[in-house]
Write a structure and sequence with these properties.
By secondary structure, the chain is mainly beta. The protein is about 15% helix and about 40% strand. The protein is built from one helix and nine strands; from the N terminus they run αβββββββββ. The protein has an eight-stranded antiparallel barrel with strand order 1-3-4-5-6-7-8-9. Strand 7 and strand 8 form a beta hairpin.
Length: about 180
């Protein structure tokens, strides 16, 4: 009997704790972008720290993994709004590979989430238009175009800085699928 009383008390306290946490916890403020369009203009730059910002695996340039920063302006001292990370195989045999992806992660008061860009069919020109294939958080279900324009060429395309324009559209998420 004492065991049943203790069990009921613990279950009641657990339920009370969950209810109080749900009522008293702050919900993160993110913009909902239902059925709308948004255009963002950002810059992709090397991080300010002196450590390696990219790695090349294999012989030559078989696979490129990079970690860059997203800033509001073209200067290296501009406010950082997120990260640009990617995996690209710069080889013609893999030009249309679905594994060639670039991820933009945003951590700002207005936006929280990420945007995924498929980097297939790269031409390695000064201006590239790539397809946005999805997102998370504020950018959930995003579709659109990511336009990269080289602004400052380093020793190679890995060390270059880029102006990034994201032109995103979002589905209207107010409609729900009914189960008939």
């Amino acid at each position: 009997m004492l065991a049943k009383l203790i069990l009921c008390t613990l279950v009641s306290l657990a339920v009370l704790a969950v209810v109080l946490l749900a009522l008293l916890s702050r919900v993160p403020q993110t913009k909902q972008l239902d059925g709308s369009r948004i255009a963002l203009s950002l810059y992709i730059q090397r991080p300010r720290i002196a450590s390696a910002t990219y790695q090349v695996y294999g012989t030559g340039t078989d696979a490129l993994v990079f970690h860059q920063m997203l800033t509001e302006g073209p200067d290296n001292t501009s406010h950082v709004v997120g990260k640009a990370q990617g995996f690209i195989i710069p080889d013609q045999k893999f030009a249309d590979s679905v594994f060639n992806m670039i991820y933009f992660t945003f951590e700002t008061p207005g936006y929280s989430g990420s945007v995924s860009v498929q980097a297939s069919d790269l031409k390695y020109k000064d201006r590239e238009e790539l397809t946005v294939v999805g997102g998370t958080g504020s950018f959930a279900f995003a579709r659109g175009v990511a336009v990269f324009v080289e602004t400052n060429r380093g020793s190679d395309y890995v060390h270059a800085s880029y102006h990034l324009e994201l032109q995103l559209t979002f589905p209207n998420r107010s409609h729900t699928i009914s189960s008939r």
